[in-house]
Amino acid sequence: MSDPTTPPTREETNWAKPTAALHTGALQSSAINLNVEGRQLTGPLKGFGQMWQKTYWVRLEGAAVTPEQVIATWKAEFPSFWPKGNRFFKREAGIKPGEVAVLNLAVPGGPPVTAISTGIMVIYADEVSFSFMTPEGHMFAGMITFSAEEAEGATVARIQALIRPSDPFFELMFRIGVGHKGEDKFWLKTLGNLAARLSAHGEPQMKAELIDPRVQWSEAGMIWKNAAIRTGMYLPVAWTKRLLGR
User: Fold this and answer.
1) Mean pLDDT value of segment 51-59
2) Whole-number percent of the chain with pLDDT over 70
3) What is the pLDDT of residue 241?
4) Which of 43, 143, 222, 244 gives a 20 to 30 Å CA spacing to 199?
5) Burial (CB count within 10 angstroms: exposed 0-12, middle 13-18, buried 19+), residue 27
6) Which backbone phi and psi does 102 adopt, to 5 degrees?
7) Is residue 78 pLDDT above 80, yes or no?
8) DSSP state, 115?
């Protein structure tokens, strides 16, 4: 038994506790809550496709903000920095270790309506960074870390993703460029919006590195939990019920 007079360690306060299945809890009524409840997390060692490490960053030139201030703003206003048509539904607790959020995502370049309902879990958070991990069925199996640091006289906001497309369908989308293009555009736009919010100037940049060119055929069956396919099957039924209900 732990001593109640002993201060909690970083592992206890900054890391999420292990969980066998994700639970979203109560969310806004406008959220399309699919493909999250009861799912397991899938880190970058899982997944079907090639493993990529992608890094996006922007120097917040002209903004007198510390890394701590950047992360505090990013956590508090996280959904507002996403491109239009994409929504992030979280409970009141916000960006804290163990919290689960539902994502309603639009197709990049398409109309601003939900095409994929999926989610994330906050696995780590401190004053200068926070990290998400994805559930089964998400576009990729992986982890994304958001951070800020001082570098050569300016604060730099950074997003680093270590990911594998989660099944053969999503791997195909990445292979033909749709997945990569959409992912890159999404996070570069997010960093641009963050910089604008902080009254900074600076052009978001990125680099990508192929870590593992192999596919993992043992994970091919994950296509049965594909969030895009399941959302596409659900939405026409939901829209029909709504029309009939009227």
Assistant:
1) 98
2) 91
3) 60
4) 143
5) middle
6) -105, 135
7) yes
8) -
pLDDT, tens only, 114-149 = 889 999 999 999 999 999 999 999 999 999 999 999
Do 35 and 137 form a contact (C-beta atoms < 8 A)?
yes
The more confident residue out of 122 and 245 is: 122
Range of the domain at 72: 44-213
CATH number at residue 163: 3.30.530.20
Confidence of residue 109 (pLDDT cuts 50, 70, 90): low
The single-letter code of the amino acid at 153 is G
Say whether pTM exceeds 0.90: yes
Count of the separate structural domains present in the chain: 1
Residue 241 within a domain? no
Average pLDDT of the segment spanning 11-39: 92
Q: Annotate 67-113 with DSSP letters as a single string.
A: HHHHHHHHHHTGGGGSPTT-EEE--TT-S-TT-EEEEEEPPTTS-SS
End-to-end CA distance of the chain: 57
Q: Residues 6 or more apart from 215 whose CB is under 8 A from it?
A: 48, 49, 50, 171
Q: Is residue 11 part of a domain?
A: no
Structural domain includes residue 122: yes
Q: Which runs of consecutive H residues, i.e. helices, occur in the chain?
A: 10-14, 67-76, 168-175, 178-197, 227-245
Measuring CA to CA, how many Å separate 167 from each of 180, 205, 215?
15, 28, 9
Answer whether residue 107 is part of any domain: yes
- Could you tell me which residues come within 8 angstroms of residue 38 by beta carbon, excluding any fewer than 6 positions away? 21, 22, 23
Q: How far is CA 123 from the centre of its chain?
A: 11
Instruction: Of 240, 222, 108, give the one whose Cα is nearest residue 165.
Output: 222
Comparing C-alpha atoms, which of 50, 51, 24, 28 is closest to residue 39? 24
